[in-house]
What does this fold into?
Amino acid sequence: MDKSNNNPARMLEFLLAPMDGLTRASFRSICFDYGADGATTEMIQSLAYGRAKKPMSQTFMEVLVRYPNERNLAAQLIGSDPAAMAESARRLEALGRFDAIDINMGCPARKVVGSGNGAALMKTPDRAVAVMGAVRDATTLPVRLKLRLGWDAAHITAPFLVEQAESMGFESVTLHGRTREQMYLGSVDTVAIRTICDAVRIPVYANGGITCAGDALAFLRDTHAAGVAIGRAALKSPWIFEDIATLRRGGTVAQRRAPERVALLIRLAALTCGHRPENVAICEMRRFCGWILAGLTGYEAVLAGLNHIVTLEAFRALLEGYLDDLEQQGDLELHSELLPEMTLDTVSHRQARRMAKWA
It folds into this structure.
């Protein structure tokens, strides 16, 4: 399709993809500090929110937190009941807090698809269209769609659903280049994404398999997408968005040294304590420390020490003490030989097979 009439002023965008239990407001805020162009909340269960007769729990309300520096933030709705999805969209718009509504048809988790939600809608396109129409009719906010190529190789329904999103006036689509059957195994199908991008005028954001800033730019080029949504790579490198901007300017990306990594973690912990109970927030920081500190000398001792602290004050003291030790040793650089064999660059075959077994 000739796209010569598309708006030439529209900027290419690099978004933070939603990850359940991980992309809370605090982590999103860090990514926005590093230049992310947009993000989406964690999943909001439409059956719970749309039908709620009394105030939701504190845990649920944490999903609705938005920090001041978050721009282009969509609220992510998940569900397969058109009426509940529509009512949830109305309630979210009434909050006056979000820039768009994002419909999740891409989550492959067993607990999600087992209820007919997420990627399960890829095998019931009539219901998927009903959900899309109900949400579109219920809100004046822009509506977005996130989906996979299909349920499996025999049910590639993304082309049809993207066309439907375009005809309904959706703002954009984010497309993960694997089927639900693939989970996170195998290569992302860039050809399939490109075919869909070239067939429609609606902006399509490519998703899946990004490991670094160079990957993101190559993915953008290979898929002809309007932009790229980055997930797991941002967990271990929230600065990936800044790295992308550096590469686009013709600069060279350098490894982030210990002072920046420690400062990032302390800020993330403080932000998380702002919307989660302190002990819960500090426990959650253990996995972020594992990702961000990996490759620094002695980081395993820090991870062990984290098992015994539950306050922000103790967390800050532990990390600042660790940084002091590194500075005294003159050892602030990342060491590739200290990186664990399994990283979040991709889901390992072992992990993906386990996920498929649960599915």
User: Anything to note?
Assistant: The longest strand covers residues 39-45. The chain has two domains: 13-248, 258-333. The CA atoms of residues 105 and 291 lie 28 Å apart. Confidence is low (pLDDT under 50) at residues 1-10, 343-359.
